[in-house]
Design brief:
about 350 residues; alpha/beta; D-Maltodextrin-Binding Protein, domain 2; 15 helices
């Protein structure tokens, strides 16, 4: 933990020499009173510059938010004079919609949510990516007629619509000679994904962790599973309303400083960092070992994020998921200032 820096007060030798005759004539009681007053004034001046601020952040309770959980556990938010309240949502999209509705100040979600909101002209921005991960899987039940990719046309596939899951399924089908219109999409909230597949309400699901691993453990050889992301990482992004970010620039910097401290902690003490996540999310050893390599827990704003946003925007336009016909200028939806102040080497976006 790095403590907040304190203002340093110094007295040059000439001034000290001038004060010595005066100080020597004071009684010990008066001298002590003066010194206490000086110390109290310094403490007030030190605390005046940074008052505590409160931030409400909406997010899923999954490993993509590990840096946030580590920052909380190691009291980095407190060290940076922040009171952070966590509000759990079933998906990143729900968290961002909660942020837009004023329920929270910030939210974490995939970059696909940014694309959808940009195409709807919402005034939002991302201040940082906190994880790049590969953990989306297409899982089908063999007893419902899915054993190979050729069995997918005509099948019911459950997933939360308007999230990254829809994009990954569409791209996966495109790359395998099919089209998303050849399957029946069923809107299923992430908490209901397991029930929908096990009860036979759908033939397959697009699931991410921890549900993907839970389904594999539950159904075993009765399922077939394909990695759905085609090696295109998901960017877990911190998103806020542009007006809020602009009016809370100091709080945003302190929030990112707390996450930078968490990243340094994880780099220095990886086993301890993993233990924090395991305890917080109640993961068992086998599950954590299976999913941990899927994550790259680093603060960043990369040019690759811009490319992903543009790619996903073109896909949405081509598949009629928006009435817009032009790809937005996604530079308008990225705020680089705070991360550049906190960790300049993490910002690699061409403007």
């Amino acid at each position: 933990m790095q403590p907040t820096s304190l203002t340093t007060y110094s007295l040059n030798p000439e001034a000290f020499c001038l004060l010595m005759p005066i100080l020597s004539r004071l009684t010990p009681v008066r001298l002590a009173f003066i010194l206490l007053a000086i110390v109290g004034l310094a403490a007030c001046q030190n605390g005046a510059g940074e008052s505590r601020e409160s931030i409400r952040i909406g997010m899923e309770s999954t490993a993509v938010n590990s840096l946030i959980f580590i920052a909380e556990d190691q009291k980095y938010f407190d060290a940076n004079k922040l009171d952070v309240t966590f509000v759990e949502y079933p998906s990143g999209l729900a968290a961002v919609e909660g942020m837009i509705n004023g329920e929270v100040d910030l939210a974490t979600a995939s970059e696909f949510v940014i694309v959808g909101k940009a195409l709807s002209h919402e005034s939002i921005q991302t201040i940082a990516t906190i994880d790049k991960f590969l953990h989306n899987y297409l899982i089908g039940r063999k007893d419902l007629g899915i054993s190979t990719l050729a069995d997918l046309p005509g099948k019911r596939i459950g997933l939360p619509l308007k999230t990254a899951a829809e994009f990954y399924l569409g791209r996966f089908l495109d790359l395998n000679g099919m089209n998303i219109r050849q399957v029946t999409l069923v809107d299923v909230s992430p908490p209901d994904i397991m029930t929908a597949l096990t009860n036979g309400e759908v033939d397959a699901v697009l699931a991410w962790q921890p549900n993907a691993k839970k389904l594999e453990d539950l159904l075993g050889d009765g399922i077939v599973r394909w990695p759905a992301q085609s090696e295109q990482v998901t960017y877990c992004s911190i998103i806020g309303a542009q007006a809020w970010i602009d009016s809370h620039s100091e709080a945003v910097e302190r929030f990112l400083k707390s996450l930078a401290d968490a990243q340094d902690y994880l780099n220095r003490r990886p086993e301890d960092g993993r233990a924090i996540i395991q305890k917080r999310l109640k993961y068992d050893d086998a599950y954590l070992a299976a999913i941990w390599p899927e994550h790259n827990l680093q603060l960043s704003l990369d040019q690759s994020l811009i490319l992903a946003l543009e790619d996903e925007s073109r896909w949405m336009i081509a598949n009629g998921l928006t009435t817009e016909t032009q790809v937005p200028d996604f530079l308008d939806y990225i705020s680089t200032g705070a991360l550049h102040e906190v960790k300049p080497e993490a910002v690699n976006i061409i403007r």
